[in-house]
């Protein structure tokens, strides 16, 4: 009877150790996964910092902004001309 209690206690102890090892392994796997995600984010960020690509995007933005601003200025001038024409009558 003592042997059976001892075996039972050893078995439960072994199960707890295995569970702790399993939990530790799962934790390590989760940490590894998080590290991989962070590395991929930093690699994406580095690839986004391509200077030539940024320059081209900025040039396109500046040209479109200049075009839109000139259209607005032209529209304002036409409205002013129309208002002055209406004021004369």
Overview of this protein structure:
This protein is mainly alpha-helical and 89 residues long. The chain has helices at 2-48, 51-88. The protein is built from two helices and no strands.
Distance between the first and last residues' Cα: 118 Å
Secondary structure class reads mainly alpha
Radius of gyration: 36 Å
**Count of helical regions:** 2
The biggest sheet amounts to: none
- Mean model confidence by pLDDT: 79
List the helices and strands and how they pair.
Blueprint: H1 2-48, H2 51-88
Report a brief summary of the structure.
It contains two helices and no strands. The chain is an all-alpha fold.
Which features characterize this protein?
single chain, 89 residues, mainly alpha, 2 helices, 0% strand
